[in-house]
Specification:
It contains 26 helices and no strands. The chain is mainly α and 455 residues long.
């Protein structure tokens, strides 16, 4: 602004300045937001203490103004199946402004109710991807019983499973209205988690008998995961040394086909501790199947470790039926470990097949190559011809890389090959023929020829 304009403004009377501000607010939409922001920032300096009511009115206006800016962004994002990413920054800017405004605690109840009406108008629209954000905003704005009850009424308009759970949480954790929570909770008992929510409530209130009764009903009627219910009952009966009921729920869990690895592990340890081999074996097998059938690739290590546990516990006659599957998982998970087990079991031919198959694969796995070389040395007397071919292919692979380090490895393989031909196969002619052909094939490669002079 120029000095002349500043002087003209300074010369204006207060009434004229007021009229100018009103005029700017009327013709420039952005001016209202800027003025509100300035007043908000400087309110303590320019507004007397008695004007707290005016501060609330200002916040009420700002709240709806921020919402008016946020609402189109939500609608646009919904219509465009996610909306352009460039709108994400603007969306979160307005949400953060609303959250900061809520923190001032100076918003009227009437403005909050209007805001909640607008908020739920957006929330109930189909496929709203901002549902959780809108609900979180509603949770932040509620401070007292009247506001929470208004929020509950809005949720109940079209309440589904999610909304009913939110209502129960409000009664239980925010309003501390246990009667209303129980009334709502008892009407909505369907899944195992529903029953567990109620059982956990009774447990917190030290009403253990009711908690147990609820959990027992849950394992009979609940759908989905019953893990928490079984775990609670198992722990309760175990610490009360109620072996009859402990066996009953264990059998019920197995009969229902429950595949909860943690509970099965606890049952296995229980039967093992009581030296009940038959039940422990049955649980161990079920535990293994629950881990195996999870379908998660990252569970291969768990499967292998579980199979190792089975090998340690089961009798030899029982282990024989599981061992092939055990070896298959170990082979998939850690081929080096698999080869070590094969050696322990005297499966020499299987080791040889793995070694030869590895030669056909691309890439370079130094640890496995080193292990295969060690086994080649151990197997040379049993399979001299095959080990010769193993060394010969290793030789070719290293020559092809054409550097001094790999040439040195190739020559080392040739030395081992020569020993097998001379000392085990007693076939000097075949050695001389093959080494001669190899020298001709790589006659232009001086480093290689220099290295094989003495062979």
């Amino acid at each position: 602004m120029k000095d002349k304009q500043l002087k003209e403004l300074a010369a204006l009377k207060r009434i004229n300045l007021y009229q100018l501000v009103i005029h700017l607010l009327e013709i420039t939409p952005e001016a209202k937001r800027i003025a509100s922001k300035w007043i908000k920032k400087n309110v303590k300096k320019v507004v007397p203490p008695r004007a707290k009511k005016d501060d609330t009115l200002l916040n009420d206006e700002l709240l709806m103004e921020y919402w008016d800016n946020l609402q189109p962004i939500i609608s646009e994002s919904k219509e465009s199946d996610g909306g352009p990413r460039k709108n994400e920054t603007a969306l979160w800017d307005w949400i953060n402004k609303i959250m900061e405004l809520i923190k001032t605690k100076h918003i009227s109840r009437e403005a909050k109710f209007v805001f909640m009406d607008e908020l739920f108008s957006q929330y109930w629209q189909k496929k709203s991807q901002f549902g959780d954000i809108l609900i979180d905003t509603g949770f932040e704005i509620c401070e007292n019983k009247d506001e929470w009850e208004y929020f509950i009424n809005k949720l109940e308009e079209k309440a589904g499973e999610k909304e009913n759970k939110l209502i129960m949480d409000i009664y239980r954790y925010y309003l501390r209205n246990e009667d209303q929570y129980l009334k709502k909770r008892r009407k909505h008992l369907k899944t195992g988690n529903d029953y567990w929510d109620l059982a956990a409530f009774y447990r917190e209130k030290r009403k253990i008998k009711k908690a147990v009764e609820t959990a027992e009903k849950g394992i009979l009627k609940g759908t989905g995961s019953l893990k928490e219910l079984y775990e609670f009952l198992f722990t309760h009966y175990f610490y009360n040394k109620d072996m009859k009921n402990l066996r009953r729920i264990s059998q019920a869990m197995i009969k229902q086909g429950s595949q909860e690895p943690e509970l099965l592990e606890r049952l296995f340890k229980y039967h093992k501790r009581n030296k009940d081999y038959a039940r422990a074996k049955d649980i161990l097998l079920r535990w293994y199947k629950s881990v195996r059938d999870s379908g998660q690739p990252e569970d291969n290590i768990k499967i292998k470790n579980h199979l190792i546990k089975m090998r340690e516990y089961l009798k030899k006659s029982d282990w024989k039926t599981i061992e092939p599957e055990f070896l298959d998982y170990v082979k998939q998970d850690n081929i080096c470990h698999y080869l070590e087990i094969c050696w322990e079991k005297g499966m020499k031919k299987e080791i040889l097949e793995v070694m030869l198959a590895e030669l056909k694969k691309k890439g370079n796995r130094p640890v496995l190559i080193r292990q295969c070389d060690e086994f080649a040395e151990k197997l040379k007397n049993d399979f001299p011809g095959e080990i010769v071919e193993y060394y010969w292919k290793r030789t070719y692979k290293n020559i092809a890389l054409r550097n001094r380090q790999t040439i040195a490895k190739a020559i080392n393989y040739l030395k081992k090959t020569k020993k097998i031909y001379m000392n085990i196969l007693k076939d000097k002619k075949s050695w001389e023929r093959r080494i001669g052909n190899l020298k001709k094939e790589f006659k232009s490669y001086g480093a290689f020829l220099e290295g094989v002079k003495k062979l």
